[in-house]
Amino acid sequence: MTAQVSETLIYGSKELMMFTTPLDPYLRAKGLSFVSPHTACWRGYEGTWEIKGTEPNEGLYLVALEAHRSYEDIANLEDIFPGFPDGVFAHWFSGEIRLPQGNLLRYIHGGYASTYEYDLFLEIKKGLVVNKRAVHNTVNHNER
Amino acid sequence: MSANFSDWVLWLYVYFGIGAAATLFFLGMTYKVRPSKFVKDMRSALGYGKTLKDHLQDVLVYSIASVVVIIGWPGFLVWAFLKELREMRERMKEEEPTFICKPEHLIRKVSLIEAEQENMVNDPLGLTPKLPFGHLNSAWANFLCEFSFDESTELWYFEVPIGSDIHDYLTSDGPISGYVKVVRGKVVGEFVIEGN
User: Fold this and answer.
1) Chain segment B56-102, per-residue pLDDT in tens
2) How far is CA A90 from the centre of its chain?
């Protein structure tokens, strides 16, 4: 599988790549799916997310969406969540979201398998941020 | 009392007659799944076409097989019946819906009211609809409508632990939970409220 385009997460004043797709459980529960516009986006959509609220009450919100109903017909957040233009709280998501940081150490042409200098992980429980951790990655030079 | 010889011959004819019919049946089944003209042409183009020797070999093999079936047709009919039964079971199994929730993931039986009370969303900004299951409320309604709730139907809360196999090639990397409908101990419907 081709390397996939990331989601975007706005965290504080920064816009970060996000190698997790928290909208998927919602789409499965609702029986929704989109069409892939190209091989780097098999899921058919790109979402922009934001961590809103103040610690310890921070939540993950979907704030923008481009979802392909067909190659030309692109739905936005208002189309999928009518009446929620300011953001949709991702209460259906539990798990870790991965935010790669720094230089690309090793590119892998598939999914989100590439390695970056750091990974920031946010642990989410029913949409709420419950933990954060950072991992410093290294690459064995023989593997490069 | 002794059996008449001509009766035995008649019964033998009947036996071999049925055997001949069974042979025709098996040959017909083989003919139905023969390679298409396209496949034959492709094989020829790749140098794997049938030679005269292959054709003669086929004639010999089918002749021997026909004689064996004519003689031992009861056994072959039983074999064909069991094979069809097995394939039918496999087809039914493939058509059955698959669920993330396995019996070992069932936690507790709940009522509809309990499930809805437990799932009012805690949204820090208060943007989520004040309905059970928030944005998934309509999906919950669909889940309830999909099957009627009679005495044999139970609603269970389930949790899939992190690292569990949830599909042939997938393991959960976060908690998955939700509700399932259980009828006579079998999961018949699933509603996931948190996943990854």
Assistant:
1) 999 999 999 999 999 999 999 999 999 999 999 999 888 887 888 98
2) 12
Residues A23, A91 contacting (CB under 8 angstroms):
no
Tell me if A58 is assigned to some domain.
Answer: yes
Q: How far apart are CA B40 and CA B57, in angstroms?
A: 17
**Which tens digits make up the pLDDT trace of B120-162?**
999 999 999 999 999 999 999 999 887 666 778 899 999 998 8
- Contact state of A127 with B121 under an 8 Å Cβ cutoff: yes
Domain ranges of chain B: 5-95, 103-194
Contact B135 A92 (CB under 8 A): yes
The pLDDT > 90 percentage for chain A reads: 78
Closest chain A residue to the Cα of B143, Cα to Cα:
A29
Give domain status of residue A1, yes or no: no
Contacts of A126 in chain B (CB under 8 A): 121-122, 194
Confirm if A95 and B175 have CB atoms less than 8 A apart.
yes
For residue A128, give the 3-state DSSP assignment.
Answer: strand
Q: How far apart are CA A129 and CA A98, in angstroms?
A: 13
Task: Give domain status of residue A2, yes or no.
Answer: no
Q: Is residue A51 in some structural domain? A: yes
The predicted complex's ipTM stands at 0.86
Distance from CA of B154 to the nearest CA of A (A): 20
8 Å CB contact of A28 and B196? no
Q: Any CB–CB contact under 8 A between B194 and chain A?
A: yes
User: Which pTM was predicted?
Assistant: 0.74
- Measured between its terminal Cα atoms, the distance across chain A in Å is 20
Q: A28 to chain B: nearest residue by CA? A: B192
Which residue range forms the structural domain that includes residue A28? 7-143
